[in-house]
Amino acid sequence: MNKNAIKNFAVTARVTLIQAVTQKAFEYEITADGKNDPAQESVNGQTLTAAERSQRAQLIERIRANGFVQTMEEAAYTWFNRFIALRFMEVNNYLPSHVRIFSDENGSFKPEVLTDAVNLEIDGLDKALVLELLENQENERLYQYIIITQCNALHEGLPEMFEHIGGWTELLFPKNLLREDSVIAHMVEDIPEADWQDQVQIIGWLYQYYNTEPKDKVFANLKKNVKISAADIPAATQLFTPDWIVRYMVENSLGRLWAEGHGKPEHADWKYYLEEAEQEDAVRAELKQLRESYREIPPEQIRIIDPCMGSGHILVYAFDVLMDIYTACGWSERDAAVSILRNNLYGLDIDRRAYQLAYFAVMMKARQYNRRILRGENQPNLANFADVMGVNNSMLSGSLRQFVEQFQFADTYGSLMTVTAPAGLDEMVAAFHPTIGLDEVQLKAMVKLYKILSQKYDVVCTNPPYMGSSGMNAVLSDYVKKNFPDSKSDLSTCFMERCGQLTSQNGYYTMINIPVWMFLSSFEKLRKKIEVGNTYVNMVHFGRGIFGSDFGTTSFVISKRHINAYTGVYRRLFEKQGAVDSVDQKEKWFFEGMGYYTAKQENFSKIPGSPVAYWVSDRIYSAYNYAPIGDTVIPRHGLATSDNNRFLRRWFEIDFQKGSLLKKCDFTKKWYPMNKGGAYRKWYGNLEWVINYENNGEEIKEYAIELYKCSSRTIQNTQFYFKKSITWSALTSGALSFRWSDEGAIFGSGAHSAFADENILLYALGLMNSKINDVFLNVVSATMNKNVDDIRATPFIAPENMISIVDDLVENCVCCSKEEYDLFETSWDFERHPLV
């Protein structure tokens, strides 16, 4: 698949289509800052038809509700979605007419519908009008008419993708589509036809790449402290899941549910299915009982949901796995496809665009198995939250109003929201009469969302949205703090809890996620909550590279049942912490058996913080019987200036008397030594910075109060300033290096420090710089940031007869390191180069 071609097309198509629909709006005298009179009967000297007046009024109403820019965006992506759907259908010969819309049989940009327009058979096509347009050689108008007619003809079987065109979107149909540089010309010529034959891949990548520019804009605004709005959440959080990872998740959840009760279907090619580890007798007995219950589930009763379905990748592969299951039970593919649509698959998303593409992808997968399935009665159980927005409930009363009010921020909360319904909801809907601000379609959409959200599912499988708490708008931030206090730091971890809530007892939930929840102390309660009532079945820990180099990922399958002493299977697909390896390389390692581990989750609680340290040996576990180093050594966060350019200098940039910096009694009046991290260096060094701490930090504290209303938020642990300490760089992609710091220095937020009685400080430095400490640190934190909680957890083993011996060795290391550091001019104690 040529992803560069797909990306270039999608990014360019978005810009081109926005310009095209904006130009069409301008031709109807509708602009961003214009009068935009809906009663206007003529534009540019031309009298409008009744249909045009109606469409123009609809467009103006839409602009007044959503804004001009947002409406043009909506029109552009509506046509983008329709064009790529038609292209997919023509390449795969799924169009009812079997005549190509955009190309000829050779794949060239030469629409067959124009060359064969006289014989064209499309429901609703006015052949007299076609002949008239042909006779007048109005090819552009004819082409527009055929495309719109074809879209409307597809409405009955694919109503959610091809909404009936007759309103304001028809008014904004892009012009000049027959030009050699048009959007559809590039779609045909730039993307190979073979890429259109794998619907999930092409649709998913087109959707993600279409959002490239909006996503870049969102993250640029975040740097300016502009929070992510509800409208921008889809662009900011969407990441397309690589195909083989989707297969791993679905096969090891949906496939496992069936296989453990019935065995794997003989014809199923489940290459990513991880076989269970050897279990103890008691565990095998409990599993046997559990699997008896799986044996009773018929295919048509299995429910699987993707609550963040995006463009439908997971649901489409789940369709294939379900087809394996159905046919193993003797179903025909035609009947199975209908049943899967009606009974098995459920999906939700906040983005209307993604919803339409997911809907289309699922329907095309069904069409692959049943060529007559595109009918109104065969519709999947998919829904989107955007359909219920903009409702005015002021005309409602009683329990119906309370029900509707729950959807006020549906496009922000998405599947995180829970909805309750009054008794007799269906009767209430049947008796409902449309009111100002709420119509029957919106109400039924709410009921559909409620029913999907209130059910339990045998399998929940998703790639959740990724958004840290710092990017959340106030509405979303308040909601997750209230409803997901143990996972509130990121939307993706909130969805870990939500997926568990949606899963039925004895079911499975699986997802790909950022791995910080496995280690950080802020997620300790989440880990304990998961481990109390659930069981880790297996996990693939990818490291960095799945979604680029920005963050690592892990994927896991969890059983909604706690099985004591269960041995899970874990795969570690990276060689070095922080390394960025390609998706293809990780898949290769998966098949080669790299990084295979087994672990009992009960062992995780033996380690402080209960990290998911699946690779730890029994000997490491036993070491945690000793008291942690945090009981003896006090690690602390340092000072954050909030403006390094203002408050920090290199030591050689200031005026001071030689040799005074590390002698407290000779301090200058303004500048003080500052430990600020730096490159890898053990024992001593990286003393390059000084900080303005004049008059006990008067200026820097005033600045902190100005920013944060108090200084203690950033000027922390002042009681430890100027004391002897051990310091280290908090952020590193490799091993940590700990250094001795004499009295007289302040420590910064990038160089945490640890303090202890002098009789044990040297020994502690020796332990912290040891190889075994690297092992312990990677147990409690497999991230690149080693904070003070990670340091506290290392077991502290200090035999009395060894302390003085280690002290001498460490002191010698510090002295040697200092002598070497002072040989260079970057040290403030430099006197003369040794070669001079």
UniProtKB/TrEMBL annotation:
One Pfam family from the record: Eco57I
Keywords: Methyltransferase, S-adenosyl-L-methionine, Transferase
Top-rank taxon: Bacteria
InterPro entries, alphabetized: BREX_1_PglX (IPR047939), MethylTrfase_TaqI-like_dom (IPR011639), N4_N6_ade-DNA_methylase (IPR050953), SAM-dependent_MTases_sf (IPR029063)
Catalysis performed (reactions): a 2'-deoxyadenosine in DNA + S-adenosyl-L-methionine = an N(6)-methyl-2'-deoxyadenosine in DNA + S-adenosyl-L-homocysteine + H(+)
Upper classification of the organism: Bacteria, Bacillati, Bacillota, Clostridia, Eubacteriales
Matches recorded under NCBIfam families: BREX_1_MTaseX (NF033452)
Keyword Methyltransferase among UniProt keywords: yes
UniProt record, GO biological process: DNA modification; methylation
UniProt-recorded Gene Ontology molecular function terms: site-specific DNA-methyltransferase (adenine-specific) activity
Domain Type II methyltransferase M.TaqI-like: 343-546
Originating species: Ruminococcus callidus ATCC 27760
The protein's Enzyme Commission number: 2.1.1.72
Enzyme class: transferase
Protein's UniProt name: site-specific DNA-methyltransferase (adenine-specific)
